[in-house]
Specification:
The chain is 38% helix and 20% strand. The chain is an alpha+beta fold. Strand 1 and strand 2 form a beta hairpin.
Length: 114
Amino acid sequence: MYPYGVRKQVYVVDAKGTVKLLSSVIYVEDIIGDPLKSNPQEEYLQFLHTEVKTEQQRQSLHDYIQMIQKKYKARFVHGQERALLLKEVKTKLAKQITTETKDWKEMYGSSAKM
């Protein structure tokens, strides 16, 4: 089920009360284009979890990351940064995640990401 991921945004409030975005990081698995016409697991999404081996694969991953950063206006993280971001967000939002996803197994099956 796509999109799946987390985003962390840090804001500051200046002396005048203006809220400004200080930083934004994201990890998201999303589909580019029409999901009925392409299989993202055979294209760019697989490289979020496995090492790229060819220049074409590297370019697919690069294009995906650039698209996500532009779409969500955040710095894309993967590898160790991804693991730390997922852990931080899931820890801070554990109670809310449990409430919001309590019926996902029934609706989407045991492979639903939570």
